[in-house]
Design a protein that fits this description.
- The structure holds two protein chains of two kinds.
- By secondary structure, chain A is mainly alpha-helical.
- Chain A has 14 helices and no strands.
- The longest helix of chain A is centred in the first third of the chain and has 48 residues, at 15-62.
- Chain A is globular.
- Chain A starts with a helix and ends in a 7-residue tail after the last helix.
- By secondary structure, chain B is of the alpha/beta class.
- In chain B, the strands form two sheets. A six-stranded mixed β-sheet of chain B has the order 6-7-8-3-9-10, sandwiched between helices.
- In chain B, helix 6 crosses helix 7.
- The N and C termini of chain B lie far apart (44 Å).
- The chains are: A mainly alpha, B alpha/beta.
Chain lengths: 337, 271
């Protein structure tokens, strides 16, 4: 039987995650072999949404800051990558990194302004920022292509050439997603994760206590806001190079709300929740696209919203901690008795 | 020794000095011109009825509130305009009256959170699990387990704080504060809600901590208990200091006897 010390060491070392991570990576690498081209396209979407949702889970689930503006940073990454690579011919990989740093810098400025606000006010302000961002993109037509979009964005290169197939995008997106998952898991099981949880007023934190224990609450809130923005920006850059054409509708409030729904449904107590939430919502979306036209005819747009709303309500009623709580219940862990 | 010499000696021994501190909320004066000195290694009790300004005084020391007048000096540094997390880094921490354990963490994680102040791994180094960050986490977990064992809760490390009794939660709060490595511990009504047996154990623990060199400043309404262990007692009433001295001096102070320790509770005291 393991001692308390051994159990803590196991938790800290991330050993409990390693097996699951390895299995997850193996499954993902073999998906294209069994899923077919359509399945691969769907999984690219799941991967991109998972990256953005993971950043939001760190922000919302761990630090307790509600953001409905992740579309801003997803869009910033996409447009910076699109504009710079098409106009300056720089390496897409380099621009991806530059865009991520720039999005982080913007988030630090915005985050410092938001940090003294609480709960739904932060949600409202970030939502407004998303609206302003979309309006700006439409207005700056010469730079962004306006409402019609920005075409001819180059594919991500590999060595000397740029593979145009979806399979390459699939592996790039999922390798990045797994790397960010490892980073996130390390973060939440550390001094940083505890500091973030200590300021989470939505889930049992206390700012007064955090401060008397030495936590610089402003610094941590701003930093996690920037990390969420960097994740979204990376996903945005990957999205731009994957689709080759971007338009402002993809970065609107609908996107930000959808990502928040994915975080809630997946579960905000672990970065793993991002994959569950994104996986479920994208799957439901695809299923509706297949089934609804055959059953009732016409567009599936309205049914998507009904489906998202229904799943969200059901989750809040029956699994308030999201799908991750099912996994936790199956675990024989002693983390919380 | 001359008066000047005695004063210098006191200043050198002082870990904390409160100089003519005042604060008001919405026009209501909560603390009014309070001054006293805390000597290193002592147990100091601040007593007084509800509304006397005791808890407010602790918040002023930790920086959670800023005084409207006066000065607070900690280890020869003026701290009354310093952010709370920076004051914590000078070796001060507080256990709140309602403890405020983080319910989104296990017991051991709560105590590990207490180690934040003396650790320094950055966002990036913890995310990348750099060697420095890994070593620091091992150190944190070892410290947390030692502190949990000290308060007798080593076997409940993975429990949720809400599953513990009130007395156990108090001990976790104390372990968390000890994990911070503070040499000045501020305790807000540490005996509140404890049964007789737990009160005795807590007194023993506080004396042991004092023996280890930790200075304890506590706010308490159970006067008979704290008078037994405190080296110095400060009595507040309506935000003003009415007495300051040893337990014997306080018990012999006519103003205190008349208003507090005399025939039953002080007017306005709910106990």
């Amino acid at each position: 039987m393991r001692t308390v010390k051994e159990k803590i060491r196991a938790l800290l070392s991330g050993r409990e995650h390693r097996m699951v991570l390895a299995l997850f990576a193996v499954v993902l690498m073999t998906v294209p072999l069994v899923a077919g081209p359509y399945g691969v396209i769907v999984m690219v979407d799941v991967g991109l949404y998972s990256i953005v949702t993971m950043g939001l889970i760190l922000l919302m689930g761990f630090a307790g800051q509600i953001s409905l503006g992740q579309g801003v940073f997803f869009g910033l990454g996409a447009y910076m990558s699109g504009i710079i690579t098409t106009r300056c011919g720089l390496s897409p990989w380099l621009v991806l990194l530059v865009a991520a740093v720039a999005a982080g810098a913007v988030a630090i400025v915005v985050g410092r302004a938001l940090v003294r606000l609480r709960g739904l006010i932060v949600a409202g302000v970030t939502l407004a920022l998303n609206l302003v961002f979309c309006s700006l993109v439409v207005s700056l037509r010469d730079l962004t292509g306006g409402a019609t979009g920005l075409p001819l964005i180059p594919r991500l290169p590999l060595g000397g050439f740029a593979p145009s197939n979806t399979l390459f995008s699939y592996y790039v997106v999922w390798i990045v997603a797994i790397l960010l998952l490892v980073f996130s898991l390390n973060l939440v099981n550390s001094r940083t994760g505890r500091a973030l949880k200590s300021v989470n007023l939505l889930a049992g934190g206390s700012e007064d206590t955090a401060q008397v224990l030495g936590v610089d609450i402003i610094r941590y809130k701003v930093q996690v806001f920037a990390v969420g923005a960097i994740y979204a920006s990376i996903a945005g850059s990957l999205y731009a190079h994957y689709t080759g054409c971007i338009e402002p509708g993809a970065f609107g409030v609908h996107f930000s709300v959808l990502v928040a729904i994915m975080a809630i449904i997946g579960g905000m107590t672990s970065p793993w929740g991002a994959f569950l939430g994104a996986g479920l919502i994208v799957s439901v979306n695809e299923a509706l696209r297949e089934v609804m036209p055959a059953v009732v005819g016409g567009s599936t747009g309205a049914y998507e919203l009904i489906a998202y709303g229904s799943i969200l309500v059901a989750t809040l009623l029956f699994l308030p901690q999201g799908l991750m709580s099912i996994w936790r219940r199956l675990q024989p862990q002693e983390r919380f008795r | 020794m001359s008066e000047k010499g005695k004063q210098r000696d006191t200043e050198e021994q002082a870990i904390l000095e409160i100089r003519d501190v005042s604060v008001a909320y919405d026009g209501l004066v909560a603390v009014n011109g309070v001054s006293f000195c805390v000597r290193r290694g002592d147990i100091i009790a601040i007593i007084g009825p509800n509304g006397a300004g005791k808890t407010t005084l602790l918040k002023l020391i930790t920086g959670l509130l800023r005084p409207s007048g006066g000065e607070i000096w900690l280890k020869q540094q003026r701290v009354d305009r310093v952010a709370p997390h920076r004051i914590a880094s000078l070796g001060v921490t507080q256990v709140f009256q309602d403890i405020q354990l983080f319910s989104n963490m296990s017991v051991v994680e709560n105590v590990m959170a207490g180690c934040h102040v003396w650790t320094g791994a950055s966002f990036l180094s913890t995310g990348l699990r750099l060697p420095h960050s890994r070593a620091e986490e091992r150190n944190i977990s070892d410290t947390a387990l030692r502190k949990l064992s000290l308060v007798g809760l080593g076997q409940k490390a993975f429990y949720s704080p809400s599953s513990l009794s009130w007395g156990e939660q108090k001990r976790v709060g104390l372990a968390r504060a000890l994990a911070a490595g503070a040499d000045l511990l501020l305790l807000d009504e540490p005996y509140g809600g404890l049964i007789a047996e737990e009160i005795g154990k807590l007194s023993q623990l506080l004396l042991e901590l004092q023996h280890r060199g930790i200075t304890i400043l506590m706010v308490e309404q159970l006067t008979d208990v704290v008078l037994d262990i405190a080296n110095q007692v400060v009595v507040l009433r309506y935000g003003e200091k009415i007495a300051d001295g040893t337990a014997a001096e306080i018990q012999g102070n006519e103003q205190v006897i008349a208003t507090y320790l005399g025939n039953g509770p002080l007017e306005g005291d709910e106990r």
